[in-house]
Specification:
By secondary structure, this protein is of the alpha/beta class. The protein has helices spanning about 5-10, 15-35, 35-45, 60-65, 70-90, 125-140, 160-170, 180-190, 215-225, 250-260, 275-290, 295-305, 315-325, 335-340, 360-365, 400-415, 420-425; strands at about 95-100, 105-110, 115-120, 145-150, 175, 190, 200-205, 210, 230, 240-245, 265-270, 310, 330-335, 350, 390-395.
Length: about 425
């Protein structure tokens, strides 16, 4: 198949961000116009609770830290340590280039001023997403960080206790009980409070918004892009596994189920050279799905148009398929998996060999689990330090260095019919 044919044939979730944008636009407008009042109304409508505190009190964050299960705390602290180690190495280096004597161009990497980090809380809660978003922003040197996560009815209108506790462990004290598209709008435009002074500020606007979410979060990001920077319009999670006949069918089936339990729209795709492996995986999936806690969700994901087993003639064709697909998560379970992984050109993250499952990357590998979905890996990267810094170029020429190229600048300015550009050069000599 040609690349065009592959792109048309490979399974994808049926996700209509355009339609969701029409539904989300009034929500974004309401938050921009009415601030805290709209946020409470929307929480009551979508989350089934009207939060007393839109900004989570500091004592509630500390109480969540103290109430955290000790084993979960140890796991979170280890995850934080590993993610911090990897992200500390990601910071790009400044550089200076001497173009000619007296002619210098420098480039500085500068963190954005303020970021809004979104943590979902619908079908599951994600303290691990707090780690991924916050640590990357902290490693970039961002000075002001705010987190938003949906209010939970069973937690008194506050976000999940585990989400709050993770914020506390990371030193984040600006946390909002706001979910969905309304959280994106609050971050983009800021929000006035509903206190004694009606114009009092609840949340200041941010420069960049990151974090995963459902189609409505993606639609809200599309609406505010340009007002703020965003990481991506994240869609449902995806796993693709490229496997040959040496792969363990039990491992493959377990990994497909692990991502399918995220969402009924989650994509699980096996690309294999082995008919025998495909049949064995299908057989093992039946038993594993019935036994898993989120069986209904998993069954819907595996039966959906976004999931499939793709048979290929050889690994070369398999690589063409996975490179065209551009999976969020790509596992390589083949002979010489590391060499095969080097030939992958499009993936959010690559997991090499039988002991590097996607679940490792979700929590403890040290990599970031906020990754491009829906084929966006063809042109963008997962979340990292680079998501929160900008390059600023600094140009410094002395008189002799400018004089040496002045005639060429004037020639180009005249060729473009912009004579004042040339006159700005002549004025100096």
């Amino acid at each position: 198949m040609s690349r065009r044919e592959l792109l048309e044939t490979l399974p994808r979730a049926e996700l209509d961000v355009e339609a969701a944008t029409e539904q989300v636009a009034p929500i974004v407008a309401a938050v921009r116009a009415h601030g805290a009042v709209a946020l409470r109304d929307l929480a009551e409508r979508f989350d089934g609770v009207r939060p007393e505190h839109l900004r989570v009190p500091a004592d509630a964050i500390q109480a969540a830290v103290h109430g955290l299960d000790p084993l979960v705390r140890v796991a979170l602290e280890e995850a934080i340590s590993r993610v911090r180690t990897v992200h500390a190495a990601q910071r790009p280096a400044d550089f200076t280039v001497e173009v000619a004597p007296g002619a210098q161009v420098r480039q500085r990497w500068v963190p954005v001023r303020r970021v809004g980090l979104y943590v979902p809380g619908g079908l599951a809660v994600y303290p691990s997403s707090v780690v991924m978003n916050v640590v990357a922003a902290q490693a970039a040197g961002v000075g002001s960080l705010a987190v938003a996560s949906p209010p939970q009815r069973d937690n008194g209108g506050l976000p999940s206790p585990d989400v709050l506790a993770t914020c506390g462990l990371l030193g984040i004290d600006e946390v909002y009980a706001v979910g969905g598209a309304q959280a994106i709008a609050m971050f983009a435009f800021g929000a006035a409070g509903a206190g004694p002074a009606d114009g009092e500020t609840l949340c200041e606007p941010v420069d960049v918004i990151t974090g995963p979410g459902n189609v409505y979060v993606a639609a809200a990001k599309r609406l505010v892009r340009g007002v703020v920077g965003i990481d991506a319009e994240a869609g449902p999670t995806e796993i693709a596994i490229l496997a040959d006949g040496t792969a363990d069918a039990t491992h493959v089936a377990a990994d497909l189920v692990s991502q399918a339990e995220h969402d009924p729209l989650a994509a699980a795709v096996l690309v294999t050279t082995s008919v025998e492996l495909a049949g064995s995986v299908e057989s093992k999936l039946s038993d594993r799905v019935e036994a898993t806690a989120n069986a209904e969700r998993v069954m819907r994901a595996l039966a959906g148009p976004q999931s499939a087993i793709v048979l290929v003639d050889n690994l070369e064709h398999g690589l063409e398929v996975v490179n065209a697909y551009g999976a969020e998560h790509l596992e390589i379970q083949t002979v010489d998996a590391a060499a095969v992984a080097e030939q992958v050109t499009s993936a959010g993250a690559i997991f090499v060999g039988p002991y590097s499952p996607v679940s490792l990357g979700d929590y403890m590998a040290g990599s970031n689990h906020v990754l491009p979905t829906g084929g966006c890996a063809h042109f963008t990267s997962g979340l990292g330090v680079h998501s929160f810094v900008r390059a600023i170029q600094v140009i410094e020429y002395d008189s002799d260095a400018l004089a040496a190229v002045s005639d060429r600048i004037v020639a180009l300015a005249d060729a473009e019919r912009l004579p004042a550009h040339g006159e700005a050069i002549r004025a100096r000599f």
